[in-house]
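Sample entry was shown:

___
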Amino acid sequence: MNPLTGITVVEVSSFVAAPLCGVTLNQLGAQVIRVDPIGGASDVHRWPLSADGTSIYWTGLNKGKRSATIDLRSPDGQELVHRLIVEGDGIVVTNAVLPWLSYESLAAKRPDVIHVQLLGRRDGSTGVDYTVNAGLGYPLVTGPASHAGPINHVLPAWDVCCGLYAALGVVAALRRRDQSGAGTRISLALEDVALATAGNLGLLTEPQVIGTERERLGNAIYGQYGQDFTSGDGAAFMVVLLTGRHFRDLVKVTGTEAAVSALAEALGVDFAVEGDRYRYREVLSGLFATWFGDHSADEIAVALSDTSVLFERYRTFAEVAAGPKVTANPLFSRLAQPGLGEYYAPGLPAAFDGTHPASAAASALGQDTADVLTERLGLTAADIARLTDAKTIGDHSA
């Protein structure tokens, strides 16, 4: 049994953060019922799409969930969602700001409700990962040092962090309810997650305390030695040296002992100190680059594998998907997803007792509507037919 086996969560969501929270809770064992408006939310056809139009994005973020489609604008539809929450385990995760789905409206019916509200900004105004990031500073320190304008990062980092914080919040609230019987109202803003992370990493503290701002470094690493190199046959590698041992090993394998020693003496520095390696990273990289350029990618990988140096060859998503990091990794298992076929899908990154909880296929939009309402609320076949005819719920059989 996984840690949350026996728990049911209702999710009313779209895009990344809230659905990722639901996927994570499902991988931990919870049954997650995703409720969408009839026809689907705005992310149901988000790219990339398979040949038959199935969204790879949507199925990826809804693995293992049950799917119900309900008219969220009608009083009858809203009452059905309320009942799914209140008569279930009293847990809802949403990024939709809807008065009828508020903590207050649910707590009036079930005082121990756990309500997770994801927001763009804490004042309730909208914000997505890219707009939040634009107002934070990261795009102005991302990219080549010679570039003058902002560069967005392709990873929606704050969405991911926000989804995981939300899942943590649900787990913490469950423990609180088990101990005291109290419900919990959790409000989590995407912008606050981004600000907290930048603050925790010192990016916001630095200008306040020492009056400096982080500089744009390209592929170098602030405060440490890190640089990309290209092999003689054109492969790119990232090399990171965090300790004196890492540095000594790279100097030895590249045969630059004499040159590095002479450089240290001429500059009056000690390259055993990370700050000195960082300050003179460009001249050091010039010394190391010759060795990389004189060797093939395979030769470099073999040579560095026998050292403590931290390195990795740059690879494309396609290369990774076809390689052992996916195909021979217990994190991944073969998943048969309608609309996509069979592929390697990740489970939960955390292993419990040596096992990664696996993911199940995503339900088709609205596939479980009748079953969920029958099992959870005791509705009859006649009730389902009446609600379908009234277009209060989606007709998946049509």
User: Anything to note?
Assistant: The longest strand covers residues 31-36. The CA atoms of residues 108 and 192 lie 28 Å apart.
